[in-house]
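Readers of this paper often ask what the protein records in our data store actually look like. Such a record has a labelled line for the sequence and another for the backbone structure tokens. The tokens are whole numbers drawn from a learned vocabulary of local backbone shapes. We quote a single record here, exactly as it is kept in our systems:
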Amino acid sequence: MMKQNQMNFALDRRAILLGGAAISLLPTAAFALEPTIAHVTSPRVLGKDDAPIKVVELFSMTCPHCASFHNNTFPNVKTRLIDTGMVRFEMQPFPLDQIALRGHALARALPKNKYFPMISMLLKDIDRWARNPDPLAALSQMARLAGMSAADFDAVMGNRPLLEAIVEMRQKAYKSWEIQSTPSFVVNDKTIISGDLSYEDFAAKINATDA
């Protein structure tokens, strides 16, 4: 199942940087972008900092298994584990290709309160934009649903330091945890579980790890 996502996990930043109607979940009012490196690389977290179980998800915006997990399993993870104070859940980018990189860049350039709604929208409509013959044009349309102007979108897509910062996050995760597939979940900074897990399997696996 993971075959297409087990390719080129040690790609250098150059390999990723080069080359190549949705349901609106977000208000469309305009906003000020914060595309600084500090903003883009700062944590995107749900849950309490003192939660006993800390999970970091490594995911790619164009990964169908990541989309399936978030569309089918994550709603239960949020209501039953995160909202109850059991799990602190952080999402980190692990782009597998340049289109995924652009999707991560879009989401991370937004104000933080728009990050998770944008991720949800992009993964729910992954076929509409990621499989589109012109994925950047389709991604631009999704950005406009969030209130991002075409000019701001183009500026983010052309911001090489921002893109390189996201690739560096990917490389750091690869070196630290030897990630081999997406989605992968690092539990309490030492145990790796992977795959498009059901809620029952996910909950069992994270509870089986040593705190």
